Amino acid sequence: MLCPLPDLFAIVTGASTGIGFELAKRCAQEGYDLLIAANEPEIEKAAASLRTRDGKVEALEADLSTIEGVDELYAAARGRQVDALLANAGRGLGHAFLDQDFGKARQVVDTNITGTIYLIHKVGNDMRRRNSGKILITGSIAGFTPGSFQAVYNGTKAFLNSFSFALREELKNTEVTVTCLMPGATETEFFRRAEMLDTAVGAAEKDDPAEVANNGFDAMMRGEGDIVSGFKNKVQSAAANVTPAGVLARQHRKMAEPGTAKK
Ligand SMILES: NC(=O)c1ccc[n+]([C@@H]2O[C@H](COP(=O)([O-])OP(=O)(O)OC[C@H]3O[C@@H](n4cnc5c(N)ncnc54)[C@H](OP(=O)(O)O)[C@@H]3O)[C@@H](O)[C@H]2O)c1
What we know:
Number of strands: 7
Number of helices: 10
Helix content: 40-55%
Strand content: 5-15%
Oligomer: single chain
Order of helices and strands: EHEHEHEHEHEHHHEHH
Bound molecules: NADP nicotinamide-adenine-dinucleotide phosphate
């Protein structure tokens, strides 16, 4: 007699809105049970809308910029095998670095870097022990460019893009895959939360978060190293790799400096 296959299980962080919500939706469509997390009560609404599908969906409100918040998320999985970890939670922050509130700048580093790699350290060790699992990290094409007027954020994404490839190499003799999703500007809550609506990039037309998430999910399933979502972004990131850093920083000012949005 055939044994029924165990249900797949995924953790998606930053799933209350935007790219993370769309990643969670795609996981649900593909039959994964879900544990989704974000910092605000909105995560419960996201869970309710995902529960209309077959799989189980649990939601957790936790601050993933803190060690305690990540521990809470890991504990909420109750030892269940994590087949896919989609480490997506992240924050941006506009304005010149010296004008930023340092607490907010630190929150960007703690969420995008510390919380993300701490969660990957915990879940990744479990995956390596049993020799299976998929990790998707939401980096960004911002990681290719010194981000004047978004300096800390772009730095965190440069870290994640690099970290993702390094971890992938370390795990190459295992069945654990690591994929970096690198979106360009995408239509989510991101620019409002980053206080960047008065910038050219904040006001510009952006990519569809569902399309970005689907590209990321498909690349994760194929076990690819990275996916830059969208043709324009592919060209932009290829050009960034051969452009001097000073030129990139100057170009970034034109799209990210407060007041650059067309009136
Ligand atoms: N939008 C873009 O143009 C763009 C481009 C490239 C990469 N990305 C990356 O894509 C990812 C998703 O961003 P998005 O564009 O979808 O923006 P979004 O709509 O603002 O979503 C961000 C998600 O992360 C969660 N989050 C932020 N800080 C958190 C914390 N400390 N603890 C727990 N959850 C936290 C948010 O939940 P709460 O509201 O509850 O805090 C929300 O669910 C981020 O890593 C971002 O850097 C975005």
